[in-house]
UniProtKB/TrEMBL annotation:
Domain of life: Eukaryota
GO biological process: signal peptide processing
Transmembrane spans: none
GO molecular function: serine-type endopeptidase activity
Protein name from the UniProt record: Peptidase S26 domain-containing protein
Pfam families named among the record's database cross-references: Peptidase_S26
UniProt region (Disordered), positions on chain: 11-36
Domain Peptidase S26: 118-151
Alphabetical list of InterPro entries matching this protein: LexA/Signal_pep-like_sf, Peptidase_S26
Length: 175
């Protein structure tokens, strides 16, 4: 799991039609969440084209779908608690649109529920507008945790390490 971060993560009240507010119960005598996890995973998965060059060489940006990588990400919330960890790539929304950046640090306000922040940096520092420019990003601005580059096919690769891939698909594994 995400430790105290998971308990403090905040959706910020953003509600979108697809994939939000669905039940994750699996019913019967089965282990809760496990048999239905891949379906829940698919309901939370969304693809995002990358436009800038701030994440090169890991992720290539460009103009249009054929000139840029497309990243698949999981939208975390309390029903699908796939919270970002340091070193992982996330999709962030601000007034200018979406950005793809790497999480360097996580912070949570002590004693408060729902208040958390991320410090994000681009892999290509000279071309990146990131937390060095605008500071800490509130957790409700994080739209998704990037799982993989899915397009173009010759550049497709995982962005998560193997244990996190399993967690992304199956949910948190029991201790």
């Amino acid at each position: 799991g995400g430790g105290c971060w998971a308990g403090l993560w905040r959706s910020g009240g953003r509600r979108r039609g697809r994939g939000t507010g669905r039940s994750s119960s699996s019913g019967g005598g089965r282990r809760p969440g496990r048999p239905c996890a891949p379906l829940r995973f698919l309901g939370r998965l969304e693809c995002f084209p990358v436009h800038g060059r701030s994440m090169m060489p890991e992720i290539h940006g460009g103009q249009g779908v054929f000139g840029s990588d497309v990243v698949a990400g999981i939208k975390p919330d309390r029903s699908c608690p796939f919270w970002p960890r340091p070193g992982e790539v996330i999709l962030v929304v601000d007034s200018k649109g979406r950005m793809v950046k790497r999480v360097r640090h996580l912070a949570a306000e002590e004693g408060a529920t729902g208040r958390a922040w991320v410090w994000i940096l681009g892999d290509n520092a000279p071309l990146s507008e990131d937390s060095r420019v605008f500071g800490w990003v509130p957790s409700h601005r994080v739209e998704a945790v990037a799982v993989a580059v899915v397009w173009p096919p010759w550049r497709a690769h995982w962005l998560l390490k193997p244990p996190r891939r399993k967690e992304a698909i199956w949910g948190p594994l029991p201790p």
